[in-house]
Amino acid sequence: MDITDQFQSLTPNQWLGIPVALVGAVFLALGAQFQHRGVGKVEAKHGGQTGGMGFSSLFALLSRPSWVIGTVLLGLAIVLQLTSLYLSPIIVVQPLGAIALVITAVLNSSLSGVKLDRISIRAILLCVAGVALFVGIAALFAESKPVSDGQLAVILALLGVVTMGFSLAFAFLRNRFKAIGYIIASGVLYGFVATLAKVVIDRGKTGDFEWLTITCIVALIAAAALGAYFVQNAYASGPPDLVIAGLTVIDPIVAVAIGVVVLQEAASAPLWAVVAFLAAGGLAVYGVFQLAKHHPQAQR
Fold first, then answer.
1. Would you put residue 14 in left (φ > 0), alpha (ψ -120 to 50) or beta?
2. Are 214 and 269 in contact (CB under 8 A)?
3. How far apart are CA 207 and CA 230, in angstroms?
4. Which residues of 126-157 are buried (b: 16+ CB within 10 A; e: fewer)?
5. What is the number of other CB atoms lying within 10 angstroms of the CB of residue 75?
6. Where are the domains of the chain?
7. 108-132 pLDDT, tens per residue?
8. Quick check: 174 and 119 in contact, CB under 8 A?
9. Other beta carbons within 10 Å of 25
């Protein structure tokens, strides 16, 4: 099935998932901008912290209207993302979140008065192009299959290892963590969250709610909470468009990688497609690191 057939085969309800995902991307961009502003004000009041935000800073965020508004907008973005996953295949709607990167970059540049230089703009374009190419190749060869209990157990085990690894790294290296570290951690966790959310939605459609599905929901909530904490720390140490760049690049790459490696959804892909997968993913990730290095606000 080529990319044209992938879209031609969509039902009207599945087509509806596309505008829902686009509106969700807009809310994601706006929410990120408001949350970043709230975190910045709290950090300025507390004089900045090393080793991540403490409980006092986290509770102080609740008193910042901008952060609360941003949280509400991000909540709406999550609801819309879940709705789009319910309506459409993940490989169709998941990459649309990259539009949030462009919106966030324009908003942040306008509101902060910091103009993006040519290198930063090129890095953003690399992120968007890399994700589009990566997921576009996935659309060519991916075959959606029901997730078996064994495969779900593997995904949960991988999430446990990843969560433990990031938790230990943060515990022992928290004073050396920078924005890119928080972004990578949150992006990987959210990639698992998107995958588990799709599993829960699909099992909910068939009424398949048993202990493994409940475990999946608990793991999803825990990973989302830890990812959200890392995101707040990323806002405290980097510009919002850099944070959104990491999330909209790493999140879909991890989600698709799980589908390819664990769920064998691209078992029929030829060798050139595998090479193109790696090249596109590398291009997008390179764009994130370039943005982290050259973004005017990150350099400050």
1. alpha
2. no
3. 33
4. bbbebbbbbbebbbbbbeeeebeeebbebbbe
5. 12
6. 3-299
7. 787 777 787 888 888 888 888 888 7
8. no
9. 26
